[in-house]
Design a protein that fits this description.
single chain; 356 residues; mainly beta; four-stranded antiparallel β-sheet; Quino_amine_DH_bsu; plasmid; signal
Length: 356
């Protein structure tokens, strides 16, 4: 009996305790079975596995983490099913999203943005809009029709918290939609072969793949998100003679200052880490194929308790060691008007919203 294994990788970090989750779909007797597996961060060894559901002949695709609910939101595009996995208690639930009125359209990727759920909609390989859904009920809240022309060849979708923008990579074009103002802007990347994006500190990191003298070469570039100007370009030292899938599942781990993604070559899935400060890179074995399909990787800070109107003055009885934003990046203790994460000297953590 032949089995097909499909994976979507997700990174979770809990201020020093970093956990790797993957959604695994096994295919047996024409039925797919989805699991959420917790893996060892260094070795990739399976630490726990939780059965989610079986859904015929399609699998979980994209995923995004919502820090306000401590949940990984997943999307099965073929079935139009939204999944919600709580990383605190390992529970899973799902609901049906409303189907697009046009039967040729489908939702292809999701992103959480300040506690709000968004999905991009595609029609005949062209991105047409970004939709907001109620994350509790799945009801459609609003839809923004993209005005930027020629959005064919979708690759990636991400949210930049610093600018409040949903960022879309389509072929060699970057399209930005501000969820606060409703404005849309775009710029073109200088060449082709781009695969993944991740915004960090108002810069946009983009991965690129091309062939040089018969070898497959990967490059990580960064651009100013506001202007589209090139900031840096780094060619990875490891080259390949063949790849099953280039750099994908890209995310940023603020606590280590690293971009993290995966590369699939000759039935081996490897974890790529790239430090954006030192440019150090590493590749670690994760899985052997032969049939792995990788989805999203998500950097998270799962905290079960959120105080939405709590000031630092009320919790001065404990000594604060570090302060982070919800992406895991160290920030100033004086940061105001956003959710911050306090790390205490005793090793405990707390989410608060600090007002001015």
């Amino acid at each position: 009996m032949k089995k097909l294994i499909l994976l979507s990788l997700l990174y979770c970090t809990n201020m020093g305790a970093q956990n790797l989750y993957c959604t695994m779909t096994s295919y047996s007797n024409n039925v797919m079975y989805d699991y959420m597996n917790k893996l060892n961060n260094n070795s990739g060894a399976q630490m726990s596995s939780n059965y989610l559901f079986s859904n015929g002949s399609s699998n979980i695709g994209s995923a995004s983490f919502d820090s306000s609910s401590n949940m990984i939101f997943t999307l099965n595009s073929s079935l139009n099913v939204l999944g919600k996995y709580n990383v605190g208690n390992d529970t899973f639930s799902s609901l049906q999203l409303p189907w697009p009125a046009n039967t040729a359209e489908l939702y292809v990727n999701v992103a959480m943005a300040n506690g709000r759920l968004f999905a991009v909609k595609e029609s005949s390989s062209n991105i047409v809009s970004v939709c907001e859904f109620n994350k509790l009920t799945g009801n459609l809240i609003s839809e923004h029709i993209y005005t930027t022309p020629s959005l064919s060849g979708f690759s990636d979708f991400a949210f930049c918290q610093e600018t409040n923008e949903l960022v879309l990579l389509v072929n060699s074009k970057i399209v930005k939609y501000n969820i606060t103002t409703g404005s849309e802007t775009s710029f073109n990347l200088p060449s082709a072969g781009y695969t993944s994006i991740v915004p960090v500190n108002q810069k946009l990191y983009v991965t690129k793949q091309n062939t040089v003298s018969g070898n497959i070469v990967f490059t990580i570039e960064s651009y100013q998100l506001s202007t589209g100007n090139l900031v840096s370009s780094n060619v990875l030292s490891t080259t390949f003679t063949e790849v099953d899938e280039g750099i994908s599942n890209l995310c940023f781990l603020g606590v280590t200052n690293e971009l993290v993604g995966t590369i699939s070559s000759q039935n081996e899935i490897r974890l790529l880490k790239f430090n954006i400060g030192t440019y150090a890179e590493s590749l670690t074995h994760l899985f052997w194929g032969p049939y792995y399909f990788l989805g999203d990787m998500v950097a998270t800070t799962p905290m079960p308790t959120l105080s939405t109107h709590e000031n630092l003055d009320k919790i001065k009885s404990k000594k604060i060691k570090n302060v982070y934003d919800i992406s895991g990046k160290k920030i100033s203790p004086d940061t105001k008007d956003q959710i911050i994460i306090l790390e205490y000297e005793d090793g405990t953590h707390k989410k608060v919203f600090q007002k001015r």
